[in-house]
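Sharing a chain and its predicted structure for anyone who wants a worked example. Both blocks are below, sequence first, C-alpha coordinates second.
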Amino acid sequence: MSEHAVHNAADDDNRDDDNTPIDEEHAHVHVVPPRILIAVFAVLLVLTFMTVAVTWIDFGRTANVWIALTIAAIKSAFVALYFMHLRWDSPFNAVILIAALFFVALLIGIITLDTSEYHINFEVPPPTSARPVG
Protein backbone atom coordinates (compact mmCIF):
# COMPACT_ATOMS: atom_id res chain seq x y z
CA MET A 1 0.00 0.00 0.00
CA SER A 2 1.46 3.37 -1.00
CA GLU A 3 1.72 6.34 1.33
CA HIS A 4 -0.75 8.30 -0.84
CA ALA A 5 -3.43 5.68 -0.36
CA VAL A 6 -3.44 6.08 3.42
CA HIS A 7 -6.02 8.66 4.45
CA ASN A 8 -6.03 10.21 7.87
CA ALA A 9 -9.22 12.01 8.92
CA ALA A 10 -7.25 14.41 11.12
CA ASP A 11 -5.46 15.71 8.02
CA ASP A 12 -8.75 17.04 6.60
CA ASP A 13 -8.61 19.95 9.02
CA ASN A 14 -5.23 21.00 7.64
CA ARG A 15 -6.23 20.98 3.98
CA ASP A 16 -7.61 23.69 1.71
CA ASP A 17 -10.66 23.36 -0.58
CA ASP A 18 -8.51 21.96 -3.39
CA ASN A 19 -6.96 19.39 -1.00
CA THR A 20 -3.62 21.18 -0.70
CA PRO A 21 -2.02 21.25 2.75
CA ILE A 22 -2.36 24.46 4.74
CA ASP A 23 0.75 25.73 6.48
CA GLU A 24 -0.43 26.72 9.95
CA GLU A 25 2.42 29.21 10.45
CA HIS A 26 1.68 31.15 7.26
CA ALA A 27 -2.11 31.04 7.29
CA HIS A 28 -3.46 34.59 7.47
CA VAL A 29 -6.98 34.86 8.79
CA HIS A 30 -8.42 38.01 10.26
CA VAL A 31 -12.03 38.13 11.29
CA VAL A 32 -13.41 41.65 11.48
CA PRO A 33 -16.05 42.21 14.16
CA PRO A 34 -19.49 42.96 12.68
CA ARG A 35 -19.72 46.26 14.57
CA ILE A 36 -16.70 47.58 12.65
CA LEU A 37 -18.15 46.46 9.32
CA ILE A 38 -21.51 48.04 10.14
CA ALA A 39 -19.78 51.28 11.22
CA VAL A 40 -17.80 51.39 7.96
CA PHE A 41 -21.01 50.71 6.01
CA ALA A 42 -22.68 53.62 7.84
CA VAL A 43 -19.73 55.89 7.02
CA LEU A 44 -19.96 54.87 3.36
CA LEU A 45 -23.68 55.66 3.33
CA VAL A 46 -23.06 59.10 4.85
CA LEU A 47 -20.29 59.81 2.33
CA THR A 48 -22.55 58.68 -0.52
CA PHE A 49 -25.24 61.08 0.72
CA MET A 50 -22.60 63.83 0.87
CA THR A 51 -21.61 63.11 -2.73
CA VAL A 52 -25.22 63.50 -3.82
CA ALA A 53 -25.63 66.61 -1.65
CA VAL A 54 -22.68 68.25 -3.42
CA THR A 55 -24.77 68.26 -6.59
CA TRP A 56 -27.53 70.22 -4.84
CA ILE A 57 -25.21 73.11 -3.93
CA ASP A 58 -23.45 74.97 -6.71
CA PHE A 59 -19.81 75.56 -5.80
CA GLY A 60 -18.94 75.92 -9.44
CA ARG A 61 -18.45 73.06 -11.86
CA THR A 62 -14.78 72.51 -11.08
CA ALA A 63 -15.19 72.70 -7.30
CA ASN A 64 -18.16 70.31 -7.34
CA VAL A 65 -16.16 67.75 -9.32
CA TRP A 66 -13.13 68.02 -7.01
CA ILE A 67 -15.30 67.71 -3.89
CA ALA A 68 -17.05 64.64 -5.31
CA LEU A 69 -13.68 63.09 -6.30
CA THR A 70 -12.28 63.73 -2.83
CA ILE A 71 -15.28 62.04 -1.22
CA ALA A 72 -14.89 59.11 -3.66
CA ALA A 73 -11.20 58.77 -2.72
CA ILE A 74 -12.11 58.69 0.98
CA LYS A 75 -14.76 56.04 0.30
CA SER A 76 -12.32 53.92 -1.69
CA ALA A 77 -9.81 54.18 1.18
CA PHE A 78 -12.44 52.85 3.60
CA VAL A 79 -13.26 49.96 1.27
CA ALA A 80 -9.58 49.09 0.78
CA LEU A 81 -8.75 49.36 4.49
CA TYR A 82 -11.67 47.48 5.98
CA PHE A 83 -13.36 45.30 3.36
CA MET A 84 -10.10 44.30 1.64
CA HIS A 85 -8.40 43.95 5.08
CA LEU A 86 -5.45 46.18 4.19
CA ARG A 87 -5.59 47.70 7.66
CA TRP A 88 -4.47 44.40 9.16
CA ASP A 89 -2.32 43.20 6.27
CA SER A 90 1.37 43.57 5.60
CA PRO A 91 2.53 47.17 5.05
CA PHE A 92 4.16 45.99 1.83
CA ASN A 93 0.72 45.46 0.28
CA ALA A 94 -0.23 49.03 1.15
CA VAL A 95 2.94 50.29 -0.53
CA ILE A 96 2.08 48.28 -3.66
CA LEU A 97 -1.47 49.70 -3.67
CA ILE A 98 -0.23 53.28 -3.29
CA ALA A 99 2.36 52.77 -6.03
CA ALA A 100 -0.30 51.37 -8.37
CA LEU A 101 -2.61 54.31 -7.67
CA PHE A 102 0.27 56.72 -8.26
CA PHE A 103 0.99 55.21 -11.66
CA VAL A 104 -2.69 55.29 -12.61
CA ALA A 105 -2.81 58.99 -11.65
CA LEU A 106 0.39 59.59 -13.63
CA LEU A 107 -1.10 57.87 -16.68
CA ILE A 108 -4.30 59.91 -16.47
CA GLY A 109 -2.25 63.09 -16.03
CA ILE A 110 -0.13 62.37 -19.11
CA ILE A 111 -3.23 61.55 -21.15
CA THR A 112 -4.87 64.79 -20.00
CA LEU A 113 -1.81 66.79 -21.02
CA ASP A 114 -1.86 65.10 -24.41
CA THR A 115 -5.48 66.04 -25.11
CA SER A 116 -4.53 69.70 -25.35
CA GLU A 117 -2.15 68.83 -28.20
CA TYR A 118 -4.66 67.22 -30.53
CA HIS A 119 -7.49 69.66 -29.81
CA ILE A 120 -5.43 72.41 -31.47
CA ASN A 121 -5.70 70.77 -34.90
CA PHE A 122 -9.33 69.73 -34.61
CA GLU A 123 -11.81 71.68 -36.69
CA VAL A 124 -15.53 71.15 -36.44
CA PRO A 125 -16.87 70.15 -39.87
CA PRO A 126 -19.58 72.37 -41.35
CA PRO A 127 -23.10 71.12 -40.67
CA THR A 128 -23.79 70.49 -44.36
CA SER A 129 -20.72 68.30 -44.98
CA ALA A 130 -22.54 65.03 -44.23
CA ARG A 131 -25.44 65.74 -46.60
CA PRO A 132 -25.35 64.27 -50.09
CA VAL A 133 -25.05 66.70 -52.97
CA GLY A 134 -28.08 67.04 -55.24
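Comments welcome. The chain has a mean pLDDT of 79.
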